[in-house]
Amino acid sequence: MAAVGVVGVVQLALLAAPGLRAALAQGEAGAPAGSSALTRFITLTPAQALFDSPAYYTVGGGPNVSGIYMPNSSFNRFYTGFTLPPDYVAGSDVTLRIMWANGNSNATNCDFVLWANMLVAYRPGVTDWAHFAGGQFSNGIDTITLPAGATAQAVRAENLVIDGAGFSTAMQPRDALQIAIARDATDGSDTCTGSLVIVGLDATYESTGAFLPLTTR
Questions:
Q1: Which domains does the chain have, with CATH numbers?
Q2: pTM score > 0.70 for this model?
Q3: Which end of the chain has the smaller Cβ count within 10 Å, N or C?
């Protein structure tokens, strides 16, 4: 039997994997908006986010989780952001997933109010340009009440969908997004005297399939 070179091995592997061939062909040609197979992922971390006092980041120990602590104060928020990759489908929505927990004390059987306080996209080469995007939590508006439940430090997730096509100008690849999320303790629906804790962040976006960026931070 004749020896098979590296190229031959790769070719045989592709012949044996029609699903892989189809995925590669789709990636080369791009894909229509709305294809769930081309949803890509951007990792973020609360440890690199900025915050306004009295919010603060702490590394957990003993009974406490690590994360951004948002106490029962009038107004406190954290900031995160990222640049939309070159394969981002212009004008499509971007989803920010916020993993949160209720604190270890005074944060059970009560509610927190979370608010998408700022959603802005900046574009290189345009002076003083900003796209003020709209955002909706799972209830369809930019403010949501999160029930803490009966168990302390129970981790849950809430999605914020950022509208990529709204307002005057649609978002484009390489636009820089800046996002601020606040706890509004002044809202009458916010009844927890303990802290809301942000323990994880990530984002997903719709890809053309034409480019595979390095998106891990």
A1: 1-30 (no CATH), 31-206 (2.60.120.260)
A2: yes
A3: N
